[in-house]
């Protein structure tokens, strides 16, 4: 009973603090193993609670869990391990681990530009499950106080910021510089692993960008991933607040749809590979 209340209390602590974590559970054991079925471990990006027995099995489990956190994975997965010599454990049995992402997984957002629309948009995004990097070269354009969950980045090299963001990032580009918008678009499309990309601009601007992107070798499929004009089409307003609400609505619709797809997917079962033996 003590073990059960222990992991529940640890999990509740992380959830109350809004810290994403992965609950690792031994769901099956065969032969000699370091811990019995039901044993749990909680892994965050920077800490560890409880143990599934130590050794290389635990090391591998921590690495898998932290990769899931880095990727923002919400779908549980199962991994099978043979506790042979290559895992550095002499038990000789086999273990099946269940990895369950827990807690709130904030959507990473990179917002380029600190103009009127961006200043209206950031408070809306900050009120959502988003972690925002707000990027511009003009420090005077940022408000004096930023909402929680927003990091101000003043840089003359915004293209470098594209490369620092994790897989699945939502990119939003609304700078005051059209050539920079095009460069950012090229850099973001070249990554190919973003969760969403919205570019502010008129249909005329986007038509010109499409032509230039195609001339630089981007495929029609790549170009079609860009939302431009961005935002919910039914909202036609031109005021900064109206555009901001439209964009925030599209962000919500996107991450809600992605979450629904993940929840509808069957439990991911990863068969044993040579790396586990």
Automatic annotation (TrEMBL):
Q: Which domain of life is it from?
A: Bacteria
Cite the InterPro entries for this sequence: MoCofactor_Util/Proc, NAD(P)-bd_dom_sf, Xanthine_DH_XdhC, XdhC_CoxI, XdhC_Rossmann_dom
Q: Report domain XdhC- CoxI positions.
A: 17-81
Query: Which positions fall inside the XdhC Rossmann domain?
Result: 110-251
- Name the UniProt record assigns to this protein: Xanthine dehydrogenase accessory protein XdhC
